[in-house]
Every structure is written in structure tokens, then in C-alpha cells.
Amino acid sequence: MSVFRPEAKTEAPPREPGPVAVEAEPRMRRSWADAGIIGAYLAFSVILFGGLWADLGQGYLWNSASDQNLWEWFFAVTAKSVQHLENPLTSSLQNYPLGVNMMANTAMLGIGVPLTPITLAFGPTVTWAIALTGSLAGSAAAWYWVFSRHLVRNRVSAAIGGAFAGFAPPMISHANAHPNFVAWFVLPFIALKVIQLAQGNRPVRNGIWLGVLTAYQIFLGEEPLLIFALGFLIFAIAYCASRPREIKAMVRPVLLGGGIALVLTLVVVAFPLWWQFFGPDSYTGLEHGQVGNDTAAMTRFATQSVSGQPEAAAAVSLNRTEENAFFGWPLIVLMVVVTAWLWREVVARSLAISMFLMAWLSLGSEITVLHENTGVPGPWKLLADLPLFESLLESRLAMACVPAIGALLAIATDRVFAAAGKGELKLPVRLIWLGAVAAVLLPIAPTQLLVQKRPPTPAFFADGTWQTYVAPGGTVVPVPLPSSGESEPLHWQMDAGLRYSMPEGYFVGPQGPDDKRGRYGSYQRPTSTLFDRVRDTKRAQEITDADRDQAIEDLRYWNASVLVLIPREHSDAYRATVDLLLRKPAQFVDGVWIWDVRPITGRR
Length: 604
Description:
The protein has helices at residues 27-48, 50-54, 67-83, 109-112, 116-122, 124-150, 155-167, 169-175, 187-198, 203-220, 222-242, 247-278, 310-314, 329-341, 346-361, 401-421, 429-441, 459-462, 488-495, 526-537, 545-557, 571-582, 598-601, and strands spanning 59-61, 90-91, 100-101, 366-369, 372-377, 451-453, 475-478, 508-512, 515-520, 560-565, 587-589, 592-596. Residues 6-24 have low confidence and may be disordered. By secondary structure, it is an alpha+beta fold. Strands 7-10-12-11 form a four-stranded mixed sheet. Strands 1-6 form a two-stranded antiparallel sheet. The N and C termini lie far apart (74 Å).
């Protein structure tokens, strides 16, 4: 019997691993059914991002904050690197002259590289829309495919499980800003190949496939792979603990296929991973502090859902894109009921154990209940300081619950349909069950993502005027400098064709030249922190001769050709500060104030 397919309640003769009972259907009928279900996933995903698709020129996913600009920049820079046969693992377009380690950031080369022709032809916003829309629909479709062929015998059951796995609240939350966290369409097949190895099913071929899929997933998202692997490991341990007699038969094919997969994966990713962890602008870890889920988050409704509770959700989450555990209390109740009902089935029990333990891990190093720290240590405390785990946001561990819940929904639905079909239950239990599932899932069903118009790019950049003021090899210095809270300069740079570089920026890099700990954005030069003081105090700063000398040093370090300030909040304070700093007044050119500093930096 298949390791992945749960047992039926009644004894049946053992079956060889392979297609489940639905494979007896005519091929044409199967194909149309699959196409209809997958097409429905895609249509629903397009509707969710309808506002973005309707306005690809100016549409901006509002809850993404600065991240849409960042991801579009990743896709645009990757396409430029491919077009010009440059190294896609690095870029000097931000953080000049040090650059950005693209592999150490979430550049998602697995999407950016193959979609290069689309990015070059239609722009990075189209690639961004495709990545998000396709990842949600693709994740649902991948789970449906695996569920329908290896877990359950009824397509409706698999479709329900796939729909939840693709469109669960945590997935929709990340769909506002993080395509790497909604691109789960490879992970179901990684799990399937591991299970087939454990079955002893063609270990060489499946080992090769496992290596290829794992390597590709690394270029899609390493953190989702780590989270999923941890959840799958718990599932596997729970299963093996229930079936210890099967372990001996698993060892040889798993070692053989796993060894092949490991070697093949390393052949593909060894150099990119070296670059990520030891290459230029690499960092050792990214500290986030304690960011475990509040227990209250588990039962509340996500902002982007039918029963969304924005204020209640905001109280127990980092932001709109990190609502990682908002499953709603009806689904929590249903999962407890389903777990108790299916506990005697090994696969269902192992899934439930993985689900509950990953939810528990996601509570972090210290349990928080209704905003109050209890002082009770959580199990994450044992893992928090381990390599790789130290950079992970523990609240995201709850995302491993999503496929487990989808699988349990599929199994439970399949059991109800099978029992009703055999006449064991005389009431219209299928309709009752589907009604109950609908009642549970409707409150957490996703709503269309909020899209608003982005600020237009100043004509100075859009019309190419900047070229008059930037010397070859020189940089544009926005005032204030780009950062995680100032990402619009990335958009201007893209609209200018990525033909100039900028200092500092929005990315993840080291704390400093001698400090390899990670941080968001570059470590700042003194002139950059001076501009921050303008932002914080909302007034012009007093300038000394030491400030002027430092500014000249910083401008030369940045190879600056021109400083640019757009009309914005407190722009008068910024302009007055720079006027004093450079001892020259700004010029208003094509919608922006500029300071030509080529005479100061010696660039022509």
C-alpha cells in the first residue's frame, strides 16, 4: 500500500504503489476534469489580482508597502543580467559601490530567469503579476494533482484540499508582497518523490527528479523549503513511529535516491550557495527578534478574507503580509474533530501531528497569549540559534500547517464520499458534509487584493533628462537615500532603463565592513543619516564645516554626479539642508530639484 495514501477503514488486499482508483476513468474524462479544476484555480487567482491586471501601468498592491518596487527591481535586474550575459548573483545598481548579493536576497531567480523575455518585452510589473497569479494557482494545482493521484480517490476531495493549500489565509497574506512564499508548486512533488523513494519505487529515477526539483526550489525560495522540510520531517517521523516494521525496507532506496538527489542538487547550486553565504556582500544571519505567533492569531480571521478583522489581525501580526496563522476558529474546531475522527489512520494521524507541532513551533521562543508574554518557553527556543534557523521568522512556521490541513480536508471528504457511496449512511451526508466544509471555509475565503495607483515617475527620469547630469560611471543620489521605507527610487531607476546606479537602497546585506550580521539596507554614511534627521525632526538641519567636509567625502565615495529631490512631504526642509550643505541652491528641472555635484566630486 502506498505510504502517502491513507488506509481505508475496511481491510482490503494490498495494492502496488501507483495510480489510485480514479485512474480507471476514461482518459478524456480525467483530462477534462483536471483541466476544469486547474482552470478554476487560475481564474480565481486572476480575480484576486484583478485590480493589478487591470492597471499594469500604475497599479500597486497597496499592502505590499515597499515590496512591489523591490520585487520588480529584482526581476528587472535579473533580466538585464541575462540579456547582457552578466552574473545574475550580484548587482551594483543599488548600494554603489559595494553592490548587492542577489543570491543572499529573495531575488527568486527561478522565476526571474525563465521570464526574462516577458520582463524585457512588457516590463517587470507584468512579471510580478504573473509570478503572484501563477504561483497561487500553480500551488493549488500542484497539491490537487498529488492529492488526486496519490492521496484520495475522489476528485472533489482533492479539489477541496488543493484549493485550501493554494488559497489559505497565510498564502493570501503573503500574496500581497512575497511571491517566494506563495510559490509552493514544486514542494508537493518534492514530498512525493521522497515518499516514492521510501516505497522503493525506482530510486535512481526518483532520486534524479528529487535533485532537480530541490535545486529549482532553492532558486524559488529557500525559507519556504526549510519550513516545508521541517513539517515533512515531523510527518515522516510520526509515520515511521507508527510503522516501525517498514523502516528497514525504506533505508536502502532512501539512501540511494537521496544520495543521488544530494549530489545532483549540489552540482547545480554549490556555487550559487557559496556566493550567497561567502561571496561579496554576504551576511551570516538576519535577526528579527521574537516574532512568534500570538495564540490568538490562530483563531482570528485574516484581513484579506470574507470575515476579515483588520484591527484584530493587526494586533497580533507584524503587518498585513505576515498574517501567518489566521485560520479562523471554525477551521480550528473542524481540524480537532477531523483529527479525532481519523486518528486511527496512520497517514492522517501523522499529518495531524505535523500540523499541531508546526503550529506550536510557530508560537516562538516564548508563548504569548492575548498580547501577554506568559514566560513559558516555546519549543522554538531549542532551534532558534541553529544555522539557517536564526534568520527565519518563526511565525511563518505556521505555513507548514497549510498543506497538512488541505490533505486532512481531502482525506475527510474522501471518507465521507466513500461511506455514502456504499450506502453506509442513509442521509444525504455528502451534501451535509460539503455544506459544513463550505460554512467553515467561507469566512476565511480570500477577497480581492487592494490595488491603488502608484506615484508617477518624475519626468527627469522618465524622459531621460538625468542623462544630461550623470557622468559615465557616476551615480544618482536621491534625497533622502533609498531604503526599506524609501523604495520609489528603485521604480525611477527601472523607468530609466537601469542605466545608472544609486548608493544604499532596499535589500538585505551586512551590518558593516567588519560586521557580517544581516540588516535591511546598507550601513549608512554620515550624510545619509543627516537626511534621516531631517525626516525625523521635520525641519532643516544646522550645518557645520565638518558636515560639509564629510558630505564631499561621501559624495566622492558614492561617485555622485547629481542629487535629486522630488516634491514631497517636508521637501522644503530637505532642500534647505542640502543648499546649506553644498553651498549652492537647487535647480528645478523636469519636476525635481537637483544639485549637480560633478564639480565637487571631479566627475565630468
